[in-house]
Amino acid sequence: MGSLYSEYLNPTKVREHYNYTKETLDIQETLSRQVASALIIILCCAIIVENLLVLIAVARNSKFHSAMYLFLGNLAASDLLAGVAFIANTLLSGSVTLQLTPVQWFAREGSAFITLSASVFSLLAIAIERHVAIAKVKLYGSDKSCRMLLLIGASWLISLVLGGLPILGWNCLGHLETCSTVLPLYTKHYVLCVVTIFSVILSAIVVLYVRIYCVVRSSHGDVAGPQTLALLKTVTIVLGVFIVCWLPAFSILLLDYACAVRSCPILYKAHYFFAFATLNSLLNPVIYTWRSRDLRREVLRPLQCCREVVGVQGRQVGTPRHRPLPLCSSSSLERGTHMPTSPTILEGNTVV
Question: Model's pTM, two decimal places?
Answer without folding.
Answer: 0.80
